[in-house]
Structure formats: C-alpha cells, structure tokens
Amino acid sequence: MLRLRHLGLPDESERRQHSDGWKLYTRQLAANLLDGTPTLPSP
After folding, report:
1. Three-state SS string across 1-43, please?
2. Whole-angstrom distance, CA of residue 5 vs CA of residue 31
3. Closest among 37, 34, 36, 6 to 20, alpha carbons compared
4. CA distances for 13 relative to 9, 10, 27, 30, 36, angstroms
5. Whose CA is closest to 21, among 2, 1, 4?
6. CA proximity to 5, closest of 40, 39, 18
7. Within 13 Å and on the Cβ side, how many CA atoms surround 28?
8. Residues 6+ apart with CB under 8 A from 9
9. What is the chain's Cα-based Rg?
10. What does the pLDDT read at residue 12?
C-alpha cells in the first residue's frame, strides 16, 4: 500500500488537481510495474 499526503494546498481546486494527478500517476506506475516497463511515467 502506498499513501501520499500533500499538505498546505491553498484551496479545493488545488487539492482536486493534485489528487487527480496522483491518481493518474499511480495508475500509470502500477501498469508499468505489471507489464515490466523499467521506467517511471512522466508526471
């Protein structure tokens, strides 16, 4: 399990953008790990 916390974001819009970005990034990372791709996805 991986838990990420980003504190101090100024408003709900910023929090939503960061949340959406991390969800996308972690899905890509998991897919790459499962298929054996040796590189991390671009943020």
Report:
1. CCCCCCCCCCCHHHHHHHHHHHHHHHHHHHHHHHHCCCCCCCC
2. 22
3. 6
4. 9, 8, 21, 26, 35
5. 4
6. 18
7. 12
8. 15, 18
9. 12
10. 92
- Return per-residue pLDDT of the chain as tens, 43 residues: 777 777 888 899 998 998 898 888 888 888 888 887 766 656 5
Matching residue, tokens 């819009």: 13
Cα(first)–Cα(last) distance of the chain, in Å? Answer: 20
Token pair belonging to 30: 């998991």
Global model pTM greater than 0.85:
no
